[in-house]
């Protein structure tokens, strides 16, 4: 190749580069830019076909999520550089005082692919169900959503799974892990890591988070170890700002079919936000329906028998210790109406529930698990099941009366006064074994014993590492009111109720001379 030819090629490349730069800096829209560099039209990055085989088309969204994040990070850097240069050009041309139409396209962030295995309560074979909603019933906005979400289910004719979290009982598990990663990320990598999280506006699952940690952290193993540290979790329980920095706002949060809705924090916007997201996840809904239909076919039951889908042998009545005591329940919505379980009572709203769309399983073991789990939180509410033909209902008992009856029948362990006085002199030392629990009572964190080795004093009382102290002489114990030592010093008869591995344990003592 002659020197003249080589110079012409370099000259042509330079001209092409200058033309491309000029098009970007003068605010040319995405379609015009693409038409100048190739025959194809501009497409959304996620829907763009990158390659075709004999049997399938491979899109950008089919690439490994970690690679999508890396590519997005590069695209976003180009966007930032171009945006800064564009602003300088506008200022230089004196156009800052004019109306400017910003046409520089923002790169699309990778979409998280949430694995969805339904673990909500389902209706039975003969009862078409459309929507399942988890909410805290003391949260009035969530209760108000029932009517709108029912209308939405009828409008879309699709199955929806909605989880509603109200943040007075803490942030959902995704946000806690995101905040933990943010807290544990090395200082040099934290700005880039936070920027990546912010651009996704909180729509992050654990796969995305792990990919981001591996991408930005120079020592990912140390980050994961730090995230699992008890000290980190205790720190995060008081640092909501760490979670907010990761793009999760301190407001009610909604998951639709496993997807975190970053919009719709106000009730008036929530309905619109859910409708906007339905189209995006319609393919996933169809996939889930195929899986569900296969599951139902392989687990056929009698049409007159109710059934419930459980996960890891957990009861369908799953009451979270992290929620306020006794108010986290299930609402089931079908075309027949819906039923709520609240404060130990079943309240039916809409048409009465029958055996065709009963909220609970008739399976005896599941009912026992339900009672056990609920009793583990409220300590004393019990359900009694009666059968009348094929219609079933739960009859609650007075919680306080049952609690008092259970306590009165406990055998009391003798505590010598001299020994107890000596132990209480070490109160400051004994208090070091206390930690804040994930559970809350009236917005205040409960306390628990350390999971490590505890002081022999507690072992003498029959307590074990990890016990959550619920009540002392029927008074709730929490971070602002721990009367354990005061009660032991002043009362002759003491009853301590703790939560141990999800079950209530009552300890009774009689102080003797």
From TrEMBL:
Statement: the UniProt record of this protein carries the keyword Hydrolase: yes
Name of this chain's protein: Agmatinase
Keyword Nucleus: no
Keyword terms of this UniProt record: Hydrolase
Recorded GO MF terms: agmatinase activity
Enzyme class: hydrolase
Organismal lineage: Bacteria, Pseudomonadati, Pseudomonadota, Gammaproteobacteria, Oceanospirillales
Annotated InterPro entries: PDZ_sf, Thioredoxin-like_fold, Thioredoxin-like_sf
Segments forming domain Thioredoxin-like fold: 120-270
EC numbers on record: 3.5.3.11
